[in-house]
Amino acid sequence: MDIVIHSARLVSGGIETPDAFVAFAGDTIAVVGTGNDWAQLDPSEVVNAQGLTLVPGFIDIHGHGGNASSFDDGADSIRSALKVHRRHGTTRSVLSLVTASVDDLEKRVGVIADLAASDPTILGSHLEGPFLDVGHKGAHDPELLHSPAVGSVNRLISAARGTLRQVTLAPELPGGLDAIRQFVNAGVVVAVGHTDTDFDGALEAFDAGASILTHAFNAMNGIHHRAPGPVLAAAASPSVTLEIINDGVHVHPEVVRLAFAAAPGRIALITDAMAAAGSDDGVYQLGSLSVTVTDGVARLTEGNSIAGSTLTLDEALRRAVVEVGIDLTDAITALTSTPARAIGRAGDLGQLAAGFAADAVLLDEEFGVVSVWAAGVRV
């Protein structure tokens, strides 16, 4: 046995267990138990977690960068950006790419495929664009947005070599529903987002196979009592996961509370972080667009649209529990097992249980990160 973390308050799978221990064998969890039984395992390293909370490693299925680096800018930038998120408890990441030409996106998903082949903490790529509605473009270059075509979809799927995990698209675009089916048939999870679709249109997209709502409430029609829109369509669809950016800017805390109540067990807290996460205020690049970050809030330099966030998932957790009032077990689920399930990895990620990946985070009483392990290695 390589590592044992003992005497912790364990929160995993919606359950809180006192005086718990977890034992790692290489990159896998070998044993989970309580009390002093861990002493019989003869581990190489022992970590006393008394007074601390042990949770599964956080999984971010939607983030664009950090540490003054973007996931769009090659392998070195990806490695740099991931360092800041690892320090804040994110042990597995889907790397989100902003809208670009299909030629550029082919190259970028190829880079991510190469990295994922040797780094299990990189779960693959997420294409947020170019198949988005111009009227809900957010921080995407409108000149590069277009409807999906069979050929473009095939090129992107092929270039990713099995590592394209997620694609966000507007289902009302010409060919949108066919593209959903095409991606899903290729094993890609489809998210509805940056869209002008209504309640019925969103339901049609979910019936076609879409199963995520990209950063719910943002870049889509809102909730109206006679036009409930895509958010309530997602809440009414048991197979759909709703992403939430819980940074206090994108979604009001009362609306976050509403989302957790409307779709219990189906909220995935994400960062949507851009390059400024973990860095100072200033001017950054998001794809082809300039972004100015002031007091930690990122907005397009030309215009006032929010342009991603500077959030890390430990902060999303703290806000969920302290400001929104979400139960700790539910908040941890939204950072771990729910995003794992959303991308088809519920069988090996997102829980501290035997046979699962040895990804874990130790937290103090204020939800500060004390230690992080990813694939059995302390990061």
List keywords for this structure.
eight-stranded parallel β-sheet; eight-stranded mixed β-sheet; single chain; TIM Barrel; 379 residues; 10 helices; hydrolase; Urease, subunit C, domain 1; alpha/beta
Topology record:
Blueprint: E1 3-12, E2 15-25, E3 28-34, E4 45-48, E5 53-56, E6 58-63, E7 65-66, E8 69-70, H1 75-87, E9 90-97, H2 102-118, E10 122-128, H3 150-160, E11 164-169, H4 176-185, E12 189-192, H5 199-208, E13 212-213, H6 229-235, E14 241-245, H7 253-262, E15 267-270, E16 282-286, E17 289-294, E18 297-300, H8 313-324, H9 328-335, H10 337-342, E19 360-363, E20 369-374, E21 377-378
Parallel strand pairs: 1-4, 1-5, 6-9, 9-10, 10-11, 11-12, 12-13, 13-14, 14-15
Antiparallel strand pairs: 1-2, 2-3, 5-19, 7-8, 16-17, 17-18, 19-20, 20-21
Helix pairs in contact: 2-3, 3-4, 5-6, 7-8, 8-9
Q: What overall geometry do the principal axes of the alpha carbons give?
A: globular
- Estimate nothing, just give the exact number of structural domains: 2
Annotation, overall tally of beta strands? 21
Taking Cα atoms only, what radius of gyration do you get, to the nearest Å?
A: 20 Å
Main CATH class of the largest domain: Alpha Beta
**What is the number of helical segments per DSSP (H or I, 4+ residues)?**
10
- Could you say what the CATH architecture of the largest domain is? Alpha-Beta Barrel
- The residue fraction in helices comes out at 25-40%
Measured distance between first and last alpha carbons = 19 Å
> Could you state the CATH homologous superfamily of the largest domain?
Metal-dependent hydrolases
**CATH fold description of the largest domain:** TIM Barrel
Please, what is the average pLDDT? 97
Poorly predicted runs of 5 or more residues: none
Q: Structural class, from secondary structure content? A: alpha/beta
Strand content: 25-35%
Give a short account of the largest sheet: 8 strands, mixed
